[in-house]
Amino acid sequence: MKWLLSLLLFLPAVSHAQVITGQGKAIDGDSIAMTGFDVRLAGIDAPEALQTCERGEENWACGQEAKALLSALVDGKVLSCHQRGSDKYNRVVASCKAGRTDVAEALVRAGLAVALPQFSDQYVFAEAQAKSRGVGIWAGEFMLPADFRAANPSSVPLVRIEKQPQAP
Description:
alpha+beta, SNase_OB-fold_sf, endonuclease activity, Staphylococal_nuclease_OB-fold, endonuclease, hydrolase
């Protein structure tokens, strides 16, 4: 009986999970505009658009490079995004695929985003691989994107607030 009750409590949560499809366009390194709403990629955090990182003695625009890769992955392509929730800016938080490519995983593997294990351990292994290869942000010194936002609140653009997709 307990098993049945547990199952019944679990089913409503599963039935509310929503898959969103549509063309994407990168807003920054971890956010995508889709028709009528914005999507924040779940489980990762990419450098901010104005953030720079260091490689040796050189600064490089790691935030712009993250956005460029996300643009190459999603701009004009049909995405399939599995909604995980929403954030404080009313964006859909989702894991998205462009074809068979997990967009967030591609960013983490390239060293252009960090995994957020406090939300999901899905990208921890990809981050470990990027670190061991010394690619992207792992090739030098960088400030975690969350720390950069806290230290530079005026350099972070305001988020567009769009409506969230409605369940059918």
